[in-house]
Amino acid sequence: MLKPKNPTSAGVRHQVNVERGLTTSSPEKSLTSPHKKITGRNAHGHVTTRHRGGGEKRRYRIIDYKRNKKGVEARVVSIEYDPGRSANIALLYYRDGEKRYILAPDTLAVDMLVVSGPEVEPRVGNALPLKKIPIGMPIHNLELKAGRGGQIVRSAGTIAMIQSKEGDFCTVKLPSGEIRLIKGECFATIGQVSNLEHKNRKIGKAGRKRHMGWRPSVRGIAQHPDSHPHGGGEGRSGIGMPSPKTPWGKPALGYKTRNKSKYSNKYIVKDRRAK
Length: 275
Fold this sequence. Notes:
Layout: E1 2-4, E2 16-18, E3 32-34, E4 59-61, E5 74-80, E6 89-94, E7 99-103, E8 113-114, E9 127-129, E10 138-140, E11 160-166, E12 169-173, E13 179-183, E14 187-190, H1 206-211, E15 268-270
Antiparallel strand pairs: 1-2, 3-4, 5-6, 5-8, 6-7, 9-14, 10-11, 10-14, 11-12, 12-13, 13-15
């Protein structure tokens, strides 16, 4: 649920936060690890990802993407915040005493039971192979290779859907609109990823963005010509070329950068850019 801030100052006047329905404010320490800041730099100290730096100190939450504890029932103990992702996470206590974090699907609540395995009921929070999931049921945390763990459909509010099954493959529609073939033995979790209103929140002020680890971005036209193809010129002179370019000189609009010989091209039934 969206919750506008009381406009007691200019900084919060336009701020809109999300009521996330969290049940605790502190993580399970045994399932966290130190999160070293690299501020967008590589081993040589060169900037490889622009506009990153600063930010609050965080600990990484270890998420179980594989859901490989087959047939062992787990109880949801809490729905928690994770500073490293847009979705909420859920803390599970398994019957054998083990604790694990999973991505929390929407409508998952404390004290609900979840389980994974090829013969489990297709219910919110349960994980099972694509070939066992009914067509049209919402899914997330999909594997692209069996046993590797969920790689796609993991951010807040995202959802995928099985459209058909044929032989060893299932045809799945992804959030981008892409339709692709995925092996039937790949696991997925039932439900839509939690925190659906994430995309509608408003940060409200620049300082809050800095706390998230984002530094300011600068228009290419305002830069030195050595720094950006749009740079240089006297005053507001325009970009000086027919179409815009990226900082690395590639066309910014309509230029395909995907490798034409990429191994997974054969699994794409419909490209996400196709009309």
